[in-house]
Structures are given as structure tokens and as C-alpha cells.
Amino acid sequence: MAEGNDEPRTRRGRARGQARVDRLDSPKGAKRRIRIGIDNELIGQVSESIARFMGTGRFLLIQTVIVVSWILYNVVAVGSAKFDVYPFILLNLAFSTQAAYAAPLILLAQNRQEARDRVALEEDRSRAVASKADTEFLARELAALRLAIGELATRDFVRSELARLAVPETDGDRDRERKPSKDSKKTKG
């Protein structure tokens, strides 16, 4: 504080009644704003339902009936009963108001649909990646099974071996297999 200056100060260090001076070396404080609690989801649902209704033949039929009735009444009505005379300025204003509200509602509905489509696309991509991984795993397993089956004995091989073992052998054949002959010992040695 400067000497001789006995003015009461605020918490921010400036004298009461003195205007706040923006400084470049410190960030601006947040401005207090009145916030209205808006439920974006509710507004989105309402806008989608309105946009969905405006895109139907029923809406077009209702609007056509109203416009034709409006014009007929204002053409046929007598004197002061006419509320919108020939150039139909009020009808034009109604159409302008409808267009002013319809366009943003339709855009909001399209944005929400785009967000849903984006989420669905991401889910489809993740499912496709998982499906591809499963397919690759199953292909590897199938290849391993084919290799394992290739190493197994075939039916014809097993039958021929069983047939060979089933042929009765004579005693001489068995002895010959067990004891090597003298001729074979001489050739080896």
C-alpha cells in the first residue's frame, strides 16, 4: 500500500469505488451469467418429433386445408369479417414464421441423427474388427486341425495293418523274426 493512502481496500487490492483495470499479466475472471436450465435431450426429442411430423403427408394435407380455408374465408367473407385481405399479408407472415422455426428444428433433428449414425458406425466397426479376429482365429484352428488330421493314420492304412496282423503266422515265421539267421550274422560281421 502507498503511504498516506488510508482508503479501505477490497479483497482484490483496489480502493472501494475504483473501477477495475484489466491487466495483461493476469487472466480475466469468469463473468457471472444467469444460466437457464435447458434439457438438451428434451429439446432434441421435441424437435425430432416435430420434424418427423412435418415430413409426413398428413402435415401437408392439414396445412393445405388450413391455407385453402384461410384464403376462401377471406375472399368470401363480407366487410369487417375479413381478417386478412387480398394480398394475405398475415398468411405470408404465418408461412415465414413456420419456415423460421422449421429450418432450425429440422437441422437439429439431422444433427442428432448424424450423431446416432456416427455411434452406430463406430459400433459396426468394432463388431467388424471382433468378427475379423474371430474369423482369423477359426481359420488358424482349422489349418491346425487339417495338419493334425494329415498326420493321423488313414482308414485304408489301418485296415491293411489289421489285416496283416490278423493273418495267422506259422511257428517258423515267428522264430525267424526272433532269431536272426546264421547267414545274416556272417554277412554283417
TrEMBL record:
Domain of life: Bacteria
Transmembrane segment boundaries: 59-79, 85-108
Keyword Mitochondrion: no
InterPro entries on file: DUF1003
Key words, A-Z: Membrane, Transmembrane, Transmembrane helix
Sequence segments annotated as region (Disordered): 1-28, 169-189
Annotated Pfam families: DUF1003
Compositionally skewed regions (Basic and acidic residues) per UniProt: 1-10, 19-28, 171-189
Annotated protein name in UniProt: Putative membrane protein
Organism: Antricoccus suffuscus
KW Protein transport (keyword) present: no
